[in-house]
Write a structure and sequence with these properties.
heterodimer, A: about 90 residues, alpha+beta, two-stranded antiparallel sheet, about 40% helix, globular, B: alpha/beta, 6-stranded antiparallel beta sheet, 5-stranded parallel beta sheet, 11 helices
C-alpha cells in the first residue's frame, strides 16, 4: 500500500484558503466550516497547492526546522488524514 | 430573519423615486390586492407598500420591520386614515405568526443582487408560514444575468493602491485581498466584453435553496481586455410587470455587482471564459466565489485560471476564529462578570440607572463612573 506521503493530492474545489502572517484560514464552501493552519500546516498546504508530494514538503520542513524525520512524517500523515477527512484535499 | 437595515428615511425616499422600480411594484400591488384581502409587507421600511395596500382596498395590512424607521408608519397611517387597518410588527418576520395568513406578501429585501443576507430564507419562511393557499408573492421571480466587462474605474481599487507608488513603499501584499472584493457599480453597455447570459433564476414561489452553484460560458463579442464579471438581475414582480438593472436600463437603487479578475485578460472575438459562480449563505451574508478558466482556442491548453472569493478579501486570523470553535474552552473575564451581574439585576423592578450605579460600585476598575456603567448596560440592552 502506498504511503499517503507519496500520493499526489489536490486542494478540494470546496476549499478556499486565506494566508496571512504565515498562518492559513480555510473555508469549506460546502458546509461553511472554518479551519486554521499553523506555520507547518501552511507549509504543507502551500506545497500541495503547488503540486508537490507530501514527502517533498517533508524534506522542505526538515531543511528549515531542527526536527526528527520520523516525527515530521508522522505529523504530516496525521495532518493529511485530517485534511482528507474534512474534504479539504483529495487524491488527484 | 432580516435584521435592522441601517437605511435612513432619506434612503427609503430614494427607493420611492427609483423608477421604474416603484411604479412596477405599485402596479403589481394594485393588481394583487382585492377588496377585503390581507397583505403582509416584509422589510417594510417606513411602510410605503403597507399604505398603498390600504389605499388599494386591503382590509388588513401587517408591516414587519426591525428598523426604527417603521415607527414613522404610525404617523403616516394616521395622516392617510389607515390606522385601523395597519398592524406594525417591529421584529423579524420569522418570529411573527399571523392570526390570518396573507393573500399578498410584498417585499424588496435585495441588496445589489437578490442573494443578499437572509433574503431567500426569509421569503422561503414567509411562503410556508405566512402566505395563504393561492396567495401571491411580490416579487415572484428574479433572473440573474452575467457578462464579462472591461471597467477601468471599477477595477481601480483592486489594482492601483497596491501598485508601486510614488511614496516608495511596497504595498503589493494588499492586492490579493483587494482583488477579491466585490463592488456596486453602475456600468454602461460599452463596458461589455461578452454578451450577457443567464446565470440562474430565483423563483420565489418554489425556491428551496438559498445558495447557487452555476457554470456559464462567456464568449467575447469583440477583441478586448476583460477585467471583471458583472452580475445583475431582471425582476419579475408579477406576470408582465418587470424591470431590469442591466447596463443601459435606467439606473436603479440596486446597481450591479462587479467581481474583479485576478489579472486582466486579453480576448479575441469568439474566445470564451468558463466561469463557475457560487454564492453561499454563510452566517449572516453571502460569500461569492468565482472560478474562471480561459483556454487557448487552438491548443485547448489552460491559459488563465483564477479561483477568487469574497472570503479572501478579509484578513482572517486563526486565533480569532477559535471563538466560534466547538473545541474552545473559554475562560471567564471581568467583562463577563459584569454582564452576568447585570442580567441578574434585570427583572427586579430596578431602573437601568439603579442597575448602572450598582454595577459601577461593584466593578469600579472597569466601570469607574455611573455614566460608563449606563453606556455599558445600554449596549447590552440593545442585544435584547
Amino acid at each position: 500500500m502506498t504511503d499517503i506521503l507519496d500520493l499526489e493530492w489536490k486542494v478540494s474545489d470546496e476549499a478556499v484558503a486565506n494566508q496571512v502572517g504565515g498562518e492559513t484560514v480555510i473555508l469549506h464552501l460546502g458546509n461553511g466550516t472554518y479551519y486554521g493552519l499553523d506555520a507547518i500546516g501552511t507549509t504543507l498546504w502551500e506545497g500541495l497547492k503547488d503540486g508537490k508530494l507530501p514527502s517533498e514538503v517533508c524534506d522542505q520542513i526538515l531543511a528549515e526546522y531542527d526536527v526528527q524525520r520520523q516525527k515530521v512524517e508522522d505529523d504530516l500523515r496525521s495532518f493529511l488524514g485530517k485534511l482528507e477527512e474534512h474534504e479539504l484535499v483529495e487524491n488527484s | 430573519m432580516i435584521a435592522p437595515t441601517g437605511y435612513s428615511i432619506s434612503d427609503y425616499g430614494e427607493m420611492i423615486v427609483c423608477e421604474p422600480r416603484m411604479s412596477t411594484y405599485v402596479e403589481a400591488l394594485k393588481q394583487a390586492v382585492t377588496p377585503g384581502c390581507t397583505v403582509i409587507d416584509i422589510g417594510a421600511g417606513f411602510g410605503v407598500f403597507a399604505l398603498l395596500a390600504c389605499k388599494f382596498g386591503a382590509e388588513s395590512v401587517v408591516a414587519i420591520e426591525t428598523d426604527s424607521s417603521i415607527e414613522l408608519l404610525h404617523e403616516l397611517a394616521q395622516a392617510n386614515g389607515f390606522t385601523d387597518r395597519i398592524t406594525i410588527v417591529r421584529d423579524l418576520s420569522t418570529n411573527f405568526t399571523p392570526e390570518k395568513k396573507a393573500d399578498v406578501i410584498i417585499s424588496d429585501l435585495r441588496g445589489t443582487v437578490p442573494l443578499y443576507e437572509s433574503h431567500i430564507p426569509t421569503i422561503m419562511d414567509a411562503r410556508e408560514r405566512l402566505l395563504a393557499d393561492g396567495g401571491k408573492l411580490l416579487p415572484q421571480r428574479d433572473n440573474l444575468r452575467i457578462a464579462m466587462v472591461h471597467a477601468a474605474d471599477a477595477y481601480r481599487p483592486a489594482a492601483a493602491p497596491w501598485s508601486p507608488s510614488k511614496f516608495g513603499i511596497d504595498l503589493s501584499a494588499g492586492r490579493r485581498f483587494a482583488i477579491n472584493d466585490s463592488s456596486k457599480e453602475y456600468l454602461k453597455p460599452d463596458t461589455f466584453v461578452s454578451d450577457p447570459v443567464e446565470l440562474t433564476t430565483l423563483d420565489y414561489r418554489t425556491i428551496s435553496d438559498p445558495n447557487i452553484d452555476c457554470t456559464v460560458e462567456l464568449t467575447a463579442s469583440h477583441d478586448s481586455e476583460a477585467n471583471g464579471l458583472l452580475i445583475w438581475f431582471d425582476a419579475e414582480i408579477a406576470d408582465g410587470l418587470t424591470y431590469s438593472n442591466c447596463p443601459g436600463e435606467p439606473e436603479l437603487v440596486y446597481g450591479q455587482m462587479f467581481l474583479p479578475l485576478s489579472e486582466p485578460i486579453q480576448f479575441k472575438r469568439g474566445e470564451t471564459m468558463r466561469a463557475r459562480i457560487r454564492a453561499m449563505l454563510l452566517g449572516a451574508d453571502y460569500t461569492w466565489n468565482w472560478d474562471c478558466e480561459v483556454r487557448d482556442p487552438g491548443t485547448g491548453a489552460v491559459r488563465h485560471t483564477f479561483r477568487q472569493s469574497t472570503f479572501l478579501r478579509e484578513v482572517h486570523v486563526p486565533a480569532e476564529l477559535q471563538n466560534g470553535s466547538n473545541l474552545r474552552v473559554p475562560e471567564k473575564t471581568a467583562q463577563m462578570d459584569i454582564d452576568r451581574d447585570f442580567l441578574d439585576l434585570v427583572g427586579e423592578g430596578r431602573s437601568l440607572g439603579d442597575i448602572a450605579e450598582a454595577l459601577s460600585k461593584k466593578h469600579t476598575a472597569q466601570l469607574p463612573t455611573v455614566e460608563q456603567a449606563l453606556d455599558h448596560v445600554a449596549n447590552i440592552m440593545r442585544r435584547y
